[in-house]
Amino acid sequence: MHEMLMIDGLQYSNWSEAIFRQMREGGLSAVHATIAYHENARETLSRIGEWNRRFEAWPELIRPVRQASDIRLAHQEGRVGVFFGLQNCSPIEDDIDLVEVFRQLGVFIMQLTYNNQSLLASGCYESEDNGISRFGRQVIAEMNRVGMLIDMSHSAERSTLEAIELSSRPVIISHANPSSFHPARRNKSDRVLQAIAESGGLLGFSTYPFHLRDASNCSLEDFCDMVARTADLMGVQRIGIGSDLCQQQPLQVLEWMRNGRWSKDKDYGEGSADNAHWPEPLGWFRDSRDFPVIARGLRQRGFAETDVHDIMGLNWLRLLESSTTLQP
Questions:
Q1: pTM for this one?
Q2: How far is the first Cα of the chain from the last one, in angstroms, to the nearest whole number?
Q3: Which ranges constitute the DSSP H helices of 121-206?
């Protein structure tokens, strides 16, 4: 068992025994696994079924996280706890009852949008940000009630600020970086980051190269400097890691994420054909075995050991323990 409890706030890898072994070797205690992008309810149930098969096949490596306390058990057992998240609201379709159904099935987190306008809110690639819809207001209240975290990682600014205002519980950005560090459309303004912190939420720093200055050439020192400056802005208790690792995924998975069923044309996201393929990974963060490298970089940047433990996992754990319970 690794001494430090570490949580990755988002991955969408091509799951396999080798990847689970990498996670354990890197010391991960838990991971937020994306189970849907554009899937409907029925398709999402099949994704959960696939995870049940993985839990059956590799019980010595991974375990399901049904409640946040299971993460502490996973850490003690030397296994990786897996909790589910949706990167879009498509799995609930237009049925508010499905919010609670999916929470009962182990879904801890749901994004209100994935880049585009959804039934709930506006995505970060829309030219108009219409804010939270009537249905969105109802869904936010229901997510608050059942203990499903609201994630605005792929949402536009007004929608994000309105979601924070409407939510009675903390709102998160599971995987993104400050736009002051790198002006990707997916990255977040200081105003949004301060509002997330004030809500009691959390920002998970992304290692996806297109979210970083100098892309695949971003240095560990630059990354840790970004973390330090964001800690000054948000508070060290309000930050964590959301690597956005998409290991071993074929190109058609990237196209499914971008295009879903909604577009006949290739969607390049930031508008460049450079974005049409998976980027080269960072030299210092290639897979889950490199999580200790981030911890080492934070120490070298001057973070206290308690702060390193908080950023690498305990902030995520405390948030999950306090915000994923059913409200009385």
A1: 0.96
A2: 36
A3: 134-146, 157-166, 190-198
**Other Cβ atoms closer than 10 A to 145:** 16
pLDDT tens-place string over residues 310-320 = 999 999 999 99
- C-alpha to C-alpha distance for 312 and 245, rounded to whole angstroms: 15
Domain ranges in the chain are 6-323
d(CA 29, CA 70): 10
Distance, in Å, from the CA atom of 242 to the CA atom of 85, rounded to the nearest integer, reads 12
DSSP secondary structure letter of residue 89: S
How does pLDDT run across 243-270, given as a tens digit for each residue?
999 988 888 888 888 889 999 887 766 5
What is the per-residue pLDDT across 194-228, written as a single tens digit (0 to 9) for each? Answer: 999 999 999 999 999 999 999 999 999 999 999 99
**Nearest C-alpha neighbor of 204 from the set 322, 88, 294:** 294
Cβ distance 188 to 226 under 8 Å? Answer: no
When the candidates are 3.90.1720.10, 2.40.10.220, 3.20.20.140, 3.50.50.60, the CATH number that belongs to 6-323 is: 3.20.20.140
